[in-house]
Amino acid sequence: SPSRGLGDVYKRQGGGGGAQLEQLDFVRVRMHSWEFETEWKAGDGVGESDRLPGIFAGYERCGSRLMAFAMIAAFESFDLLRTLAIPDVVFASLLDAIERSYYDSVPYHCLLHAVDAMHSTFWLLRHGGVDEGLGKEHIFAMLFAAICHDISHPGKNNAFCVQSRAHLALLYNDRSVLENMHASTTIRLLSRPEFEPHLLGKLSADEGKAVRETVIESILATDMAVHFDNLGKFSAQQSQGFDLARAAERNLKLSTLVHLADVATPSKTWGAYKRWLPRLFQEFFDQGDIELAKGLPVAPFMDRRVPAPAKSQIGFCQFIVQPLFDAVSATVPQLEAKLENVETSLHFLKLWAELGPIPWPDAEPGAPAAEPPGAPVHAGVDEASGRPAIFWHAGKEALVTRVPGTVVPIVGMNELMPAPAAPGPATPNATRLLGGDKAGGPRPVSYTHLRAHETDS
Ligand code: AMP
Ligand code: ZN
After folding, report:
1. Average pLDDT over the chain, rounded to whole?
2. What Å distances lie between residue 409 and 113, 231, 243, 256, 438, CA to CA?
3. What is the pTM of this model?
4. Per-residue pLDDT tens for 91-105?
5. Which residue, 6, 24, 182, 295, is most buried by CB atoms nearer than 10 A?
6. Is 227 helix (H, G, I), strand (E, B) or coil?
7. Does the Cβ of 224 fall within 6 Å of ligand 1?
8. DSSP character at residue 378
9. What's the confidence (pLDDT) of residue 232?
10. Is the confidence at residue 337, as pLDDT, over 90?
11. Nearest CA, atom 7, ligand 1
12. 111-127 and 247-262 helices, crossing angle to 10°
């Protein structure tokens, strides 16, 4: 029940009514299943009572409260609030702050993806035996790193930031630009005056340093550009065993696990995996459209004129996911069984690739046929706003999950995340945060860390 030291968190989430209690219990039970199912059926992956598979059923049931419920379930499972003496109200406003820092408008790198990665991380800790030999502060760091690992993601990738000479790329020297931003934003969040004394401030200097290191290393390791390097280091260390008392070895292990949790969608059910794909490719193709319109180079997998989602996912499964799971399952044997799910996903992807690029496997019946590959992207000026825009044709409906006729503004990184004009308050005020005025006002600027960066110290 929510009385396990989480009463305030639960009440802040609108608790007290039976509906919320049911939602929390729904999440609590499914957190212990890798597939986020109560009944796992091979193939379609849909549990008997769920209309949607896996994490999508959680989202349908709880909406954006899913994040708080999943964090509550994970934290209560490890009794973290009590052992780390984190007050309910502090935990509740921390969750609010995280929730506000993801963009709803980003199709793939949104709060739901963060919950998905955090849930997988939780499962590895709780059911993969990863919690053995770890202190409470390391478990906290991993869960926190996972839920924050894509914080304020703009829906554009590192190459886009670098090619478009974004402020963010200048700040981080073109290296792991987004991951540096996610990590810095996360540590800044923990360091805010309303959180610091209750979290890092309460730990010993060594423990605080360990938490920061694990959070930073884990988030930086989610950059696909360091995947092969890190996997090589992980495998080399694994053959000698990990000494968890040594920070470097511990962080290598934990960061590899958060990375695995980040790319684990093909190892869930095909039903859930295939629902991530239109989101992923909508984000990719949107970026490709803007690159084309701006005359920047476009990666083939982001070019909607030559769509090959099945082929690119087969590559992703075979070259990234399977070797990663193979390597890690020597340390976490429970993962071996999940490779069967990847095989199932590959089976369906290969069928899909043979059948042709379209439609998406979960396209609604009666969805209009997609335009043939090679159709040019139509760029022009949006009459309503007078701004350059890309016009979305109804004919592309089956290719991505976008409303026909939508106008997509052509925006670069600096418009998405402008550089700070003048020094402003470094942190949102605590009263407003604690008041939880989520509905009122615009979404907070996700770029506050930069402003803080320039005005701090
Ligand atoms: P992240 O951006 O932290 O979520 O790291 C995962 C990256 O791997 C994504 O940004 C994609 O570029 C790439 N990727 C390709 N296919 C997938 C997939 N099915 N699931 C997750 N990531 C994928
Ligand atoms: Zn991610």
Report:
1. 81
2. 24, 38, 51, 37, 26
3. 0.83
4. 999 999 999 999 988
5. 182
6. helix
7. yes
8. -
9. 98
10. yes
11. 224
12. 130
